[in-house]
TrEMBL record, chain A:
This is Sugar ABC transporter permease. It comes from Zhihengliuella salsuginis. Residues 1-31 are annotated as: Disordered. It comes from the Bacteria. It holds the Pfam family BPD_transp_1. Keywords: Cell membrane, Membrane, Transmembrane, Transmembrane helix, Transport. The chain crosses the membrane at residues 33-54, 98-119, 131-150, 162-181, 210-231, 262-284. Belongs to the binding-protein-dependent transport system permease family. CDD domains: TM_PBP2. It is a multi-pass membrane protein.
From TrEMBL, chain B:
It comes from the Bacteria. Residues 1-31 are annotated as: Disordered. SUPFAM superfamilies: MetI-like (SSF161098). The chain crosses the membrane at residues 43-66, 97-123, 135-154, 185-207, 291-314. This is Sugar ABC transporter permease. It comes from Zhihengliuella salsuginis. Residues 21-31 have a biased composition (Basic and acidic residues). Belongs to the binding-protein-dependent transport system permease family. It is a multi-pass membrane protein.
Length: 298, 321
């Protein structure tokens, strides 16, 4: 905090003409400790990020260099491991993950947009009860419902079916999405909507031309969170899918159990499995900040 | 403030929207009812979907929990009232798993919150490469937990070639077989690594929402950094901290991937948490009744704890207005 405050001052201090020596000392002290803080921040960030770097670098190694004592830091990078992973017929797994993630996220948005509208802009009477209900379903541990879901899916003959995952991932993300989206809707100033209605725009037109553009960043943020959680989901996928509908985390687990000793190949598979979500998250990190702070940010 | 605003304007809109001025008239009542339904309608698909997909299986879990039903035993199902519950409370593995769940959740949420707050404070200032540092710091949250488990259990913690063991070797410490000697600690480490960015992002949002004039006033009053943080920033962060603890706990209680892939609950059942143990009872032991009873107990415990947390949050929502 103090640094944010003092950071504008060193620039002015550099121009000289500081009234008192005391203040000058504080300024130069501020800038010195500022750069020290910057170095510390970078160091901590690099240490924290090191496991990722290690995983990526391992994925470019030969197997004997990947599991060496002491660890190998310098090596000639090879794409061999990636080629090996891709040759393993990973395509169907990625296709299943893409369907489960994409369709469930779409479904969440389609359900959550009207719901959050009814909880913020044109609120129903028991708004906070409804919100409480939504979030309380997240407290239901998935393990507590896995048996009935397994039994129901078996009776309906939808075990090992990617659409079962679509439904489950939708219900898994919907409560959080409603909460997040509601916080974005609440930021739409009431006057804007009233003005639109004054202009004689119908409800649908108001929604389409005024509301949706204003909350699009919020929808994007919500979608990103849904994508992260459903792409990475493991428990349902492990228990409800087999050969046909298995997703990327299951593929990764398969690689782990069958070729756990092939560390470089395993790392390459991990990198490939994580890449889509990591790239999406990097690209939309501003939305991530906004999205995660649902309701709390005002 | 926001809730106040919307409910206020909602009421206004409701008032102007109702055609009949006379609240007693049947027309007005019908209009009010229609108005109520037109408000409820957009909510219904999401609400009905959520009730169907989450509450029906849970009701079935309660039903199963009262029955003796083991897929391996041929004698079929019988209604046994609360025997499953008595059995699981006699089961020391269940009690151990419950304790592990608590340790993992508390340990992970607490450590991730502290670390996340530290990172958030460091990020809440202008400096060279701030965007890059933020990108580096959020990455563990984006990486697939299955990949994280592999990365930690094999690449970092392996006793012979793990990177972390090499690092502690530099300081003269012998290699440690982390996942078998301290399985809970290993799992918590991986979890903290994954959840710290989540906490960091939430706290960062809180820091950036602080009114700058308050901070300036504090500085003018001669408050040092420590005092400003303790008496100005921390109270304002309260809501964000509560929210991150609640959300973090909700997700961490359900941890399964790391346990399954890093330690498989072992050695023995030393690192099994409730989700993992229930999974074992259900899918490896085929004891549907007991697994269901454990699920019910987990839900009750979670709801009791979380209700307290939620009440706190809702209260702070209210007092904010």
């Amino acid at each position: 905090m103090a640094t944010t405050l003092t950071s504008p001052t060193p620039a002015r201090g550099a121009a000289g003409n500081a009234p008192t020596a005391g203040r000058q000392r504080r300024r130069s002290g501020g800038s010195a400790s500022g750069s020290l803080l910057t170095i510390l921040t970078w160091l901590l960030a690099l240490v924290f990020f090191a496991p990722v770097l290690w995983m990526v670098s391992t994925s470019f190694k030969q197997e004997n260099a990947a599991a060496s004592t002491p660890p190998t830091f310098f090596f000639e990078p090879t794409f061999e491991q990636y080629a090996a992973v891709l040759a393993q017929n990973a395509g169907p797994y990625f296709a299943n993950s893409l369907i489960a993630t994409g369709v469930s996220t779409l479904l969440v948005i389609v359900l959550a947009v009207p719901a959050s509208y009814a909880l913020s802009i044109r609120p129903v009477k028991k708004t906070s009860d409804v919100l409480f209900f939504f979030i309380s379903t997240k407290m239901l541990p998935v393990v507590a419902v896995i048996m009935p879901i397994y039994v129901i899916s078996g009776r309906l003959h939808v075990l090992d079916n990617v659409w079962t995952l679509v439904i489950l991932y939708t219900s898994m993300n919907l409560p959080i999405a409603v909460w997040m989206m509601r916080s974005f809707f609440q930021e739409v100033p009431g006057e804007v909507l009233e003005a639109a209605q004054m202009d004689g725009a119908g409800l649908m037109k108001t929604l389409r031309s005024v509301l949706i553009p204003m909350v699009t960043p919020g929808i994007a943020a919500t979608a990103l969170i849904c994508v992260i959680f459903s792409w990475n989901e493991f428990f349902f996928a492990l228990n409800l899918t087999a050969a046909k509908a298995a997703t990327v985390p299951v593929f990764l687990m398969g690689t782990m159990t069958s070729e756990g000793l092939f560390l470089a190949k395993l790392s390459a598979a991990s990198v490939l499995a994580s890449l889509p979500v990591v790239l999406a998250g990097w690209a939309a990190q501003k939305q991530l900040v906004r999205g995660l702070s649902m309701g709390a940010v005002k | 403030m926001s809730t106040d605003l919307t409910t206020g304007s909602g009421a206004d809109r409701a008032a102007t929207g109702a055609p009949g001025r006379d609240p007693e008239g049947p027309d007005a009542r019908r209009a009010a009812r229609r108005e109520g339904w037109s408000r409820r309608l957009p909510l219904l698909p999401a609400l009905i979907f959520t009730i169907l997909v989450t509450q029906i299986p849970f009701a079935m879990t309660i039903w199963y929990s009262l029955r003796s039903w083991n897929l391996l035993r041929p004698d079929g199902e019988t209604f046994v009232w609360f025997r499953n519950f008595v059995d699981i409370f006699m089961d020391s593995t269940f009690r151990g798993a419950a304790l592990n769940s608590i340790i993992i959740t508390l340990g992970c949420v607490f450590a991730a919150l502290i670390l996340g707050t530290l990172f958030a404070i460091l990020l809440d200032r202008e400096f060279l490469g701030r965007g890059v540092v933020r990108t580096l710091l959020i990455t563990p949250f984006l990486i697939m937990p299955a990949a994280t488990s592999m990365l930690w259990s094999v690449s970092l913690l392996n006793p012979s070639f793990g990177l972390l063991n090499w690092v502690i070797g530099l300081f003269g410490a012998g290699p440690i077989d982390f996942t078998s000697q301290m399985p809970l600690f290993s799992v918590i480490m991986a979890l903290v690594w994954q959840w710290t960015p989540f906490m960091m992002l939430l706290i960062l949002a809180g820091l950036q929402a602080q009114p700058k004039d308050v901070l300036e006033a504090a500085a003018l009053d001669g408050a040092g950094w420590g005092k400003t943080f303790l008496f100005v920033t921390l109270p304002q962060l309260r809501r964000y901290i509560e929210l991150s603890v609640l959300l973090g706990a909700i997700y961490v209680v359900n941890t399964f991937d790391q346990i399954y892939l890093m330690t498989a609950g072992g050695p023995g059942t030393a690192s099994a948490n409730l989700p993992f143990y229930i999974y074992q009872r259900a899918f490896l032991g085929f004891d549907v009744g007991q697994a269901a009873a454990m699920g019910v107990v987990t839900v009750i415990a979670t709801i009791i704890i979380a209700t307290f947390a939620l009440r706190l949050i809702f209260r702070s929502f209210d007092t904010k207005d």
